[in-house]
Every structure is written in structure tokens, then in C-alpha cells.
User: Fold this.
Amino acid sequence: MSKKNAELKANNKATIKRVLKYIKKYWFFVILSFVCATLSVIGTLVAPIITGEAIDELVYGKGTVNFYDVRWYMTWFVVALVVVAVTQWIMNILNNHITYSVVKDIRIETFNHLEELPLAYVDSHQHGDIVSRIVSDIDQFADGLLMGFTQLFTGVVTIVGTLGFMLYIDVPIALVVVVLTPISLFVASFIAKRTYNLFRSQSESRGELTSLVDEMIGQQKIVQAFSYEDDALARFEKINNTLEKDSMSATFYSSLTNPCTRFVNSLVYTAVGIIGAFAGITGRLTVGQLTCFLSYANQYTKPFNEISNVITELQNAIACAGRVFELLDEPAQKAEPKDAVVMGEAKGEINIEHMDFSYVPERELIKDLNLNVKPGMRVAIVGPTGCGKSTLINLLMRFYDVCEGSIKVDGTDVRNITRDSLRDNYGMVLQETWLKSGTIKENIAYGKPDATDEEIIAAAKKAHSHSFIKRLPQGYDTVIAEDGGNLSQGQKQLLCITRVMLLLPPMLILDEATSSIDTLTEIRIQKAFNEMMKGRTSFIVAHRLSTIKEADIILVMKDGNIIEQGSHKELLKQKGFYFNLYNAQFAH
Assistant:
């Protein structure tokens, strides 16, 4: 066995063990399902005996047929069928309960774990692929698990039961069936081993396609603005063709199972028919017993078809479950220290000491950064793209942790402060807006759900969003689409500013907060910001240098280092990097 196959086999076993742990929680329903499967099989196995006895009564009756006995057999035959129908109905209900309860548990655990994953994981993986694991892969897993519960129990019990009855009726013929059966098992096993990789490739291609569709829908305006439609279509066709190829191959090989095993089973049935006919001629078997034996031979081989199909579906389910468990096995963000401080309202003093940070070890981004921010200071951060401005914001909010050195708030290292209490002390408005599907009012009060209508309206007036909100069809009760799709970019940004106006936290982060707002509104917003920033420590990331003239200190960053710092006037006097940036923007 190759190393790759050995690893694959080990991964399969590990995945199955984990699935069984989830099923273990519902052991009572599993036992009930097994009992129902057993009763259903018993009813199915009793029916041929009753039929055989009735046939013998008809064939071997002396002169006349005893119709009373025939009616008695038929009555019990109907009872057996009713038992089979009722127990199978109950078993299906139980199997559905087990399957979808397990799926619900896995999906909840996966989503909760996604909430605990570090931002680095989300940033480095395609969002569509993550969505595909949580939605599509778990659905595929549910289908395989449901088929397994529905057919595996009854199949195993049927095989054992029919074999027992056949041995009771005639041992030599039963042994013929047993000898030929392994051929069916070998065929099913041979095909199943070759389908797992195909189903896994299918799941990966599906995830890649979901990711592309998610990306194209989310960035549709950009796609159309840059006439990227043909390129997007070409990418889609390439991935879709790969998915088609993987799906066709997986379906083709998995579909071989049923006809191949049916062919073997037909050979078994034929052998039983021929040998049983000779046994009937010699008088070793009655006609009724032969009829019963043929029925059992058919019932005995049928579960092998079903189990073969189950194995194929389970290969797909295991492949999908493996992808889900890969997500669950991703290490969560570093746990809070047991003695982590729950910060109340911060004063706003921030000290950065000898801080190093890089997203990947091979490439340094911020090196030996030092900064001392007093409470209430307005700190502007400027510099070329990729210099580390937004990274510094991520570190202040603890979306990432520093590699070396420290960031302290009010004298406490942020790594010793709970993330929730730290972030509660920040108000953040980014260039990229985020709104959820819901009413305008719900979006504004996202960080303060218990806010009154008066508080929401007052915040909207300060943020200069009240006027456009009142012009909407239902005002503050207007429902907006996901990410505010039916609002302009400027209106969406005004709502995000209003959200912060409502909270008024002790520290503010404004990352290009007015980038999508017209000049007249920006002037008004700047006045509102100036009022809001009084007494609050504020970090302002800006490309338009006209918006940061009033900052107490301006940090000029380049290649992860602060190369200049001072007030607007001081930096202009230095005639350095900031001087050149400023003149480049306002040169005539």
C-alpha cells in the first residue's frame, strides 16, 4: 500500500470515528431504529414462509383445497405486510431525526468555530469555499448519512436473517449462495475504493465554484466597470468544466456498483433456481419450500446492492465530512488569559513599545514601532499604500496580535485585556462599509440594540444622515438589502458614521471614513467629527491630507516605520516626505 493510500485510509477511519461520536449523542433513537429495522426484516422474512405454506396447501391438498387454511395464511400474510409498513415508517422518522440532528450539531459547531477563528484564516481563504463547506458539504454529508441509516440497518439484518432461514430450509443450497456472495462484495469494494478521491475532488471544485460566484456577485459593479465579464465567464467555464469532469467521473464509477452487483446477484438467483429445481424433482424440497427459498435468495442478495449504493454515498459523505472537519480542526484564535482584564471605560492612553509585526514570517511589515498617545489626542496616520496604516488599526483592535513588543491601553497590555471589552471602547468607521439585511434603524443600533428612537434620530442628525433617511419610503423602518445594496456608497458610509455617533466610545478609529461622501457633506461631517473627537483618543487614517490638518500629531509611515511625526505645520516646515505628499495633492 502506498503512503498516500495509507494516509487516505487513516483519514477515512478518523473521519468515521468523529461522525460516530456525533451519532453517539442520539444512541436511544439509534437503538429504536435498529429495533424497527429488525421487526421490519422479520415481517419481510415471515411473508415467504406463509406464502410457501399456502402454495403447498394448494399443490399438495388431498383432493380438495382447504380454503380456510389458505385464508388463515393470507390473513397472517397481510399482518406481516402491515408490520413491515408501520415499522419502516417509524424507522424513517427516527433516521431523519438522527441524521438532521447530527447535521444541525455539526453545522452549529462549525459556525461557532468560524466565529472563533483568527482573522488571519478568513483573510487567507476563499470565502466561497468556507461557505461551501458549511452549506453544500454538510448537505452532501446529510444525504449520505440518511441513506446509511435507512438502508444499512435493514440490509445487515436482512442478510443475517435470510441466511439463517436458508440454512434451516436446505444447507447445501444455502452454502452455494454463501460461496457466490463474496464476488458481489469484491465488486462493490473495488468500485468504492476508487470513488472517494473523485468525490473529494468534486467537493473541492464545488467549493471553488461557489467562491467565484460569491466573488463575482459581491463585486458586480467592479466587474462591469472594468468590462471583466468575459474573463469572469472564462474562469467560471474553466472551473465548471472541472466540476463537470469530476462529477461525471464520480457518478460514472459509483453507478457501476448497482449493475455489477445485480449481475452477480442474478447469477446467484439462477444457481439457486437450477439447484432448487433438481431438489424439488428428487423430493428434497416441496414447491412451497422452493418458492420460499427463491424469495430468500432474492432478499439475501438485494441488500448487497443497497449496501453497495450506501458505501458509494458514504464515500461522498466521508469526503464532504472530511472537508468540514478540516475547518473544525483549524486552531481557534488564542484564548484569553484566565486573568484577562475586563476593561471598563478607557481613558484612552495608548503606548506602543518596540512593536514588530508581519503577516508572514518571511516578510517584515512593521519593525520596532514606538508611539505614545495621550488621552484625547487626535492621531492622523498617512503614507503610501501598503506602508502599514490599516495593519496598525488591526493591531489596535486586536484583529491580529503583535509578534514582538507590546501595545498598551491605559498601561495594560492589550493581550491581557478581553477582546470584547477592548473593542467596546473603540468606535470604528472604515472605508469599506458593512451593513446587514434589515431596517435602517436596526443597522444604526447594531452596537446598541436597546437604543431609543430619540437617540437614533439624534445620532443621525449629528451625522447628517437624517435628511436622506426621511426621504426613504418607510424612513427609519425602510428595509435595506444585504450590505445596503439599494443605497449609494455615500449613504452607506453615512449610516456607518451614524452607528458610531450613537455609541460615542472613548476611542475612535476613522479609516478613510469620508472617502465616499460629497465635499459639502464632508465639511459638515468633519465638524461633527471634530465635536465627537473632543476628549476622545482618535486615530484617523486619511489619503486626503486636507482632512487631518487639525490633528494633534501626524504619523508619516513608510515601509512599516514611522519616518516623520509632528503637527501639520511642523511637518511642512521639515520639507520631508509629508511635505512632498501634501504638495503632490495640492499642486496646481
Q: What stands out?
A: The mean pLDDT is 80. The chain has three domains: 18-25+92-328, 347-425+506-517+526-588, 434-504. Residues 67-116 form the longest helix (50 residues).
